[in-house]
Design a protein that fits this description.
There is one protein chain. The protein folds into 2 domains: about 170 residues, Lyase, Ornithine Decarboxylase, Chain A, domain 1 (Beta Barrel), CATH 2.40.37; about 250 residues, Alpha-Beta Barrel (TIM Barrel). The chain has 12 helices and 17 strands. The strands form 2 sheets. Strands 1, 10, 11, 12, 13, 14, 15, 16 and 17 form a 9-stranded mixed β-sheet that branches. Helix 8 links the parallel strand 6 and strand 7. Helix 3 packs across helix 4 and helix 9 runs parallel beside helix 12. It binds pyridoxal-5'-phosphate. Pyridoxal-5'-phosphate binds next to loops.
């Protein structure tokens, strides 16, 4: 392959003033990487997370709805984001508001971590399939809301509650989707009967769904169906008044034009001729809180909008965004160890693709890593085409299989910065593979425009 036929669609990541400031500060990146052992570091921007969360809450306000935004905690393990939720709750309480923010947890560890951050049990929502008795017991003791996934789970929770009226939502299996989560019509009927029989043990709040995929109209259709279910449940004598829309709001990682160019181009170059069947939609026209707004305010054909239906029938909404609250709230810095000058080249970074989870789902994290050089590059440098490999002995441990066009040849001591990694990418899959330490998480706050760092608060579970 000669340099002249190498080409690569550029997919530069969308940035923020915070990412611009942090990535422009080479001494800061050098100090952090050196100070924390020379491997990758994850840098977090909890202020961006809080802005994203407020954006979701504002949609409920503007639509005249009572709504709660539960952060889907599994998307990032950092304490900084749980702390940010605790701050949001406290600020709102001072303003005389409650029930605007909370955390969606799915394990005993996440529950404890949320409590330790200062989020009260009553502001927690518990999701996940068949929850262990310990988790259900915590829900009873702390007055958390439990999303029920099966009638037998409801029976177990009612026994643990024994008169404490723990609040529950019934998770609905969406039709015709095939999922291992949620209850079908028969199971829902049975659970509704159980809730009536155990009215002092469980308080049935309403219904929830969580869809995979990123379709707004499917979410709108589901929400419409759940409005009907709430009304039918009331007719049976249940005090249903809430619908949870789940999570799954799309976010954009790259600009629309670049994404269009990427999807139009069929001949992408990948290391070792690697091919992928599908990718996350790295650009969507409607993202995050705007997607929530579109779901609740734009009516499905022949129906009222969700917002209107909820107002008419006194229904409040929950939502459980994970990725969308973390949009542009974190980056990951990998130090360059070496460069193989082939055509195309191979850059080896100190770190593994375990810190870039998308690589473990038979697909690729596509946004171009940003090259931050340790030294000022030579004038008029030639572009350098390369993939990015990990510092491990696994042939398949690649951070980027795609051949990326870098502005010049990277050198040891430079950094590759992967943007927008806070949502699922940075820590879902990390392990001490090869006896390498788990990369640290560092919170960076801009004080008068200058970055000030601190280590994410350690977890004491
Ligand atoms: C994972 C999950 C979420 C969050 O999904 P995102 O795609 O990160 O918004 C919300 N609710 C449930 C039940 C989940 O399992």
């Amino acid at each position: 392959m000669t340099r002249s036929i190498l080409r690569s669609v550029r997919l530069p990541a969308l940035t923020t003033p915070w990412t611009d400031t942090v990535t422009a500060d080479r001494p800061l990146l050098q100090a952090l990487v050196r100070g924390f052992g020379g491997g990758p570091v994850h840098l977090l921007d909890p202020a961006q997370f809080a802005r994203n969360a407020r954006g979701f809450a504002a949609v409920f306000d503007e639509a005249g709805l009572d709504g709660t935004v539960y952060f889907g905690k599994k998307a990032n393990k950092a304490n900084a984001f749980a702390d940010a939720v605790a701050d949001l709750v406290t600020t709102d309480r001072r303003a005389g508001r409650s029930g605007t923010f909370g955390i969606d947890v799915a394990s005993v560890g996440e529950f404890r971590q949320a409590l330790a951050a200062g989020v009260r049990g009553r502001d927690l929502l518990i999701t996940g399939p068949t929850k262990p008795a310990e988790l259900l017991g915590l829900a009873v003791r702390h007055d958390a809301v439990v999303t029920i996934d099966s009638p037998s789970e409801l029976r177990a929770l009612a026994a643990l509650s024994d008169g404490l009226g723990v609040r529950v939502l019934f998770r609905v299996l969406p039709q015709p989707a095939i999922s291992r989560f949620g209850m079908n019509d028969d199971e829902l009927r049975y659970a509704e009967r159980l809730a009536l029989d155990h009215a002092t043990d469980v308080a049935m709040l309403g219904y929830s769904f969580h869809l995979s995929g990123y379709s707004l109209s499917e979410r709108r259709d589901q929400a419409c169906q759940l409005v009907d279910r709430v009304r039918a449940a009331r007719a049976q004598g249940l005090a249903a008044r809430t619908i949870s829309l789940g999570g799954g709001y799309p976010i954009s990682y790259v600009p629309q034009d670049d994404w269009q160019r990427f999807t139009n181009e069929t001949a992408h170059a990948f290391h070792a001729g690697k091919q992928f069947d599908s990718y996350y939609p790295y650009h969507s026209a409607i993202t995050g809180a705007q997607a929530l707004r579109a779901i609740v305010t734009e009516p499905a054909p022949g129906r009222k909008s969700i917002a209107q239906s909820c107002q008419d029938h006194g229904i409040s909404l929950f939502t459980e965004p994970g990725r969308a609250l973390l949009d542009r709230a974190g980056i990951t810095v990998f130090p360059v160890l070496g460069v193989k000058e082939r055509e195309p080249g191979m850059i080896v970074v100190n770190g593994t693709s375990l810190s870039l989870s998308e690589q473990w789902f038979d697909t690729e994290f596509l946004p171009d890593p940003q090259l931050v050089s340790a030294t000022t590059p030579v004038a008029d440098p030639a572009p350098f085409f390369a993939s990015v490999g990990a510092a491990t002995c696994l042939e398949s441990d690649m951070l980027t299989w795609r051949v990326i066009e870098f502005p010049h040849r990277p050198a040891p001591g430079d950094f590759l910065v992967y943007h927008n990694t806070a949502g699922y990418q940075m820590d879902s899959n990390e392990s001490a593979f090869h006896d390498t330490p788990i990369p640290p998480k560092v919170v960076i706050t801009l004080v008068d425009g200058r970055p000030v760092w601190e280590l994410d608060r350690p977890t004491s579970n």
